[in-house]
Amino acid sequence: MYLDVSGSVTLLVIMERLMKGGPIMKAVKPIDGRLPLADRVNSYARYLPYRFGPAPSHNFTIVRTDLLQALSEASLCRQLTIIQGPAGSGKTCLLAQWADRLRQAGRTPVWLTLEQSDSDPLVMATGIAEACVLAKLDQLGESIYAALPSLVHVPQDQVARTIAALINGSGVKLIMIFDRYELADTPQLGGCVAALAEHCIGLHIAIASRHRPDMSLGDLRARNQLFELTPTQLNFSPEETAAVVDRALPELYAHRLHAKTDAAPIVIQFARRAIEELELA
Predict the structure, then answer these.
(1) φ/ψ bin of 243: left (φ > 0), alpha (ψ from -120 to 50), beta (otherwise)
(2) pLDDT tens digits for range 159-195
(3) Is residue 111 within 8 Å of 53, Cβ to Cβ?
(4) DSSP string across 20-44
(5) In a 10 Å sphere around its CB, with 0-12 CB exposed, 13-18 middle and 19+ buried, how is residue 235 labelled?
């Protein structure tokens, strides 16, 4: 299935016009395929901002310096990073901090939050094209988007090779972030992502998932091109636990909290909220 974002943009603009009480036909007319892709995607992203970036966290956040350093080092010498952990383990927050750090260093992160429909490699390829445009890589996004009609009903490895060739031809060094990968995880998508990592020169893919992705990793592991962060590695250090509870607990109790919760970030965040509620009572 080939997806054209213009239809989605048209619907969203109509909704906006209705809410403002404006004429519908005036909204429909400008939204067509003749508009530059960047204009269509930017309009689209206004209504779905978390498709192309992290949702804001309402928890107290700390900078995970050691993990950020490990991610940055892996992105320079390996092709694929997998961050695996349960809900609330801090995967998205960590990737958001890393994306900010990459931008500060002049590198280009391309963020795509996956949905169930992305299990179709062609749908995900559409999302990659849109995400590239939003990352100010208009030419690359346009070239991927233009190639989509030729990729209908072709094997997923051919989709991956086509996208890889376009990325390699652009000369851009990309960091591609796929958050909430578990929502779209299938062997078909896994084969596409693994092939993309294999064929792209200068591309690093980072995946965040609640469970181990359904893809063959033997070749990447054998070539030392795979970096993994496990649920245990996502747990807080004693110092991070103390920072989260903001020294509201005596050191002894902070250490006990750390030990009793197995340093699980979500549990320690709940403890901080409980402490705040007690202070307000």
Answers:
(1) alpha
(2) 999 999 999 999 999 999 999 999 999 999 999 999 9
(3) yes
(4) HT--HHHHHTT-STTS-HHHHHHHH
(5) buried
